[in-house]
Amino acid sequence: MVPFRLKLDLQLFSQEKTESATPKKRQEARTKGQVAKSMELPAAFILFFSFLSFYMFGGFMKEKLISLFKSILNDFLNLNISIENVSVLFEKVAIQVMLILGPIFLVSIVIAVLGNYLQIGFLFTGDPLMMKFSKINPLEGAKKLFSVRAAVDFLKSILKMTVIGIVVYITLSGEKDHIMQLARLPLEDVISYAASVTLQLGIKIGGILIAMAVFDYLYQRYEHEKSLKMSKQDIKDEYKKTEGDPHIKGKIREKQRRMALQRMMQDVPKADVVITNPTHFAVAIQYDSSKMQAPTVIAKGTDYIALKIRQVAQDNGIMTMENKPLARALYAQVEIGQSIPADMFQAVAEVLAYVYKVKGKAN
């Protein structure tokens, strides 16, 4: 005797989250602002492109800055201190500062927007701004403080500071001879050299931070996907909430079928004739020349339903005629409430003519 073996899916009992998130859960998480996003990536882009923009707009900024100092020293240094003169000075200085820093601010804003858009697309939600008591719960705060994510963030910070320190050390070590000669150079050359080294460091550090931020983004995506994972029971529960309980839906469909059958049986007494197979098929036909352009099927069924149609027809004095090919054809091709197709007009017309003839003789 072959032993009987029952196979069980233990994941249904363990609730282990092994399944990928469904589109519905992903959309719900996105609505709540829970997306795969790295804060390091926009910051690294801003740093890199801000220093890069100094190369693009450096000449323009230098001219504006020199013009500002010349204007202050030549036009305003010997002016009498008054409310009007000070207002004019501050207004002119503010305009010049805006012109100098405007390109950098514009680049930073554009890069910040693009850095976030490339990660999560367009997303506007106020759910993260809502007041939640869990955010001020000290226990939840302690859990986050000593969580794996906090440890990873700490290690990332240490790694970034280490890498930046190494880059700064290597760069300044390579410029050691030039730095030692700065004391003999004019002030303008010293400023130009310091600006050049600063730009080099900014671009190097920005490029390295972008590379590290890409890995951080991949890690954030991994953590996000992990947090969204579902158990098989979760998927079943979501399906029930979305589509409805299959048992309840089955009962509803059964009730709908019964109501449709009851309505159909109520229409059988209106029929002019019931065409049968004789036992397996029954199709009730009605024709009212004042309301209908062609005879119409008002009820049909097989087996038990066919028997009920014949019984209702007999109880109400509706004539029953046996025509196997016509009964099968009508049942297969014509739905309830539809008119007879043209290729069946002749056969149905002959049946109705016979019925009217018999009824006429009976009357």
TrEMBL record:
Function comment? Required for formation of the rod structure in the basal body of the flagellar apparatus. Together with FliI and FliH, may constitute the export apparatus of flagellin.
- A single GO CC term, please? plasma membrane
Query: What NCBIfam families does this protein's entry cite?
Result: flhB
Keyword Transmembrane included in the entry's annotation: yes
Q: Which residues form a coiled coil?
A: none
Specify one Pfam family.
Bac_export_2
**Which Gene Ontology biological process is one annotated for this entry?**
bacterial-type flagellum assembly
- Official protein name in the record: Flagellar biosynthetic protein FlhB
Cell location: Cell membrane
Q: Where are the transmembrane segments?
A: 41-61, 97-125, 146-170, 190-219
How is this protein positioned relative to the membrane? Answer: Multi-pass membrane protein
Q: Does the keyword Transport apply?
A: yes
Similarity field: Belongs to the type III secretion exporter family.
Give start-end of the signal peptide: none
Could you list this entry's UniProt keywords, alphabetically sorted: Bacterial flagellum biogenesis, Bacterial flagellum protein export, Cell membrane, Cell projection, Cilium, Flagellum, Membrane, Protein transport, Transmembrane, Transmembrane helix, Transport
